[in-house]
Amino acid sequence: MTYKGFIWFLLAETDKQTVTSIEYWFRCMDIDGDGILTVFELEQLFQEQVARMDILGMEPFGFEDAICQMQDLVNPKEAGLVRLLDLKRCGQAGPFIDLFCNVVRWRSFEAHQHQIRMKQQQIAMQRAADSAWEGAALGEDLYNDGDEGEGDDD
Asked: Which of 67, 75, 86, 124 has a CA that sits 20 to 30 A from residue 95's CA?
């Protein structure tokens, strides 16, 4: 790899959301050069990531899970066939590329997503608890409003 090629690689690795980066990685991933990432190509790329997970002592996950993730991230027009346009329009090209090319960054993305889901769940639970308290307080106020005046006759 030339110095210039290395610089392009670093730029593409650093920010996988730019159009130039998406095009760079798509060319790298399109093993047969036909302009379509097939399940066969993705499986070959994924096997490399499984080997990396093994070396790094990470718990591997199955290819079927990777394909489900791919479907959720990219939502290609044709199931199992990812085109460059699919990647450009999905808004999740970076995580998709990491899933098949950089499992360490993928795991980082996955952990971050988990933290976001946990925070959203905490917020929802807090809102539900607040709502329950507000409902109880409102019910108590209504009950007290109805009691006022009663018993004053004694």
From this structure: 124
